[in-house]
Amino acid sequence: MAEELMEGLENHTAFTIHLFGLDIPIAESCVVTWIIMAVVVLLSIIFTHGLKKVPTGRQCIIEGIVGWLDKLFLDILGEKGKKYLSFLETLIIYIAFANLMGLFGFVPPTKDINVTAALAGIAIIFVQLAFIIEKGPLKWLKSFLNPINVLDLITRPLSLCMRLFGNVLGAFVVMELIKLAFTTVIGVPAIGVPVIFSAYFDIFDGLLQAYIFVFLTTLYMTEAMEEEEHGGKKLKKAKKAATSRR
Amino acid sequence: MGIIALGAAVAVLTGIGAGIGIGIATAKATESIARQPEAKGDIRTSLIIGCALAEATAVYGFVIALLIIIMLGSK
After folding, report:
1. pLDDT > 90? residue A14
2. If DSSP states are collapsed to H, E and C, what string results for chain A?
3. Is this complex's ipTM strictly greater than 0.85?
4. Best interface-test mutation with B: which of A75, A113, A116, A163 has the largest number of B CBs within 10 A?
5. Is pTM beyond 0.90 here?
6. Contact: A211, B70; criterion CB under 8 Å
7. How many CB pairs under 8 A join A and B?
């Protein structure tokens, strides 16, 4: 039982490419990522071909999803965050698909710590780029005079990476334990029962973690983009509170 | 193996803090929604962020416990 669990925790190599005498190992997470890419590209083609001014059928679905995501990020970022939307939405779609891959019998790529580390790295580089674009490189360099900002550069990607990895791995381990418990302890093959747990661990937790990862990236971005003047911020907050109360 | 398992168990004790933290946050959120139902949306988003940040400590404990078992237990 313990060996089976340990086996599940390892990152497997799907196949090895022999190129110019070099052996390049291709990890399983990479292959699953290719599958996700193919699925997402296919879905994008299906949903966006033949767009009309008055949406019907499938266009309604995709407009609903994109509109919801747009609103979600614009509420946090404000109007000037519009040019960063495509990156944030791509990130949330990829992570959501990656976490849901466990449902279809694939190993979720986010179970590999290298994938989450790369995602956290991309996110934090993007936050720094947004800072430079919004305020200029001089102010960016100046921000490092504050040691807290230097520390943030290390702790933020680390916590983003570990949170996603730990949650996906935790869900994976619990699901494996449930399956093992049914077959070895009780003696009946688990049919139907894991579905209940899968609904929580794979669907709910997976989507929530995707949301939280991108949400925190967006929060870091707002922090990097916001103005130093407190007067303007307070006014904006008061305005927002007034509109939400209406 | 016994002492390694004990070490992993101690690492997972971080879950206590996360449980208490999320419990307090949820209690306060329900209270404030009851007092001000119109601010439901704002309260929910800040509750989710708070829960995610509090939960992180439990996840760190879990990751470290797993690392202890994998790194030390396989020797």
Report:
1. no
2. CHHHHHHHHCCCEEEEEEECCEEEEEEHHHHHHHHHHHHHHHHHHHHHCCCCCCCCCHHHHHHHHHHHHHHHHHHHHCHHHHHHHHHHHHHHHHHHHHHHHHHHCCCCHHHCHHHHHHHHHHHHHHHHHHHHHHHCHHHHHHHCCCHHHHHHHHHHHHHHHHHHHHHHHHHHHHHHHHHHHHHHHHCCCCCCHHHHHHHHHHHHHHHHHHHHHHHHHHHHHHHHHCCCCHHHHHHHHHHHHHHHHC
3. no
4. A163
5. no
6. no
7. 41
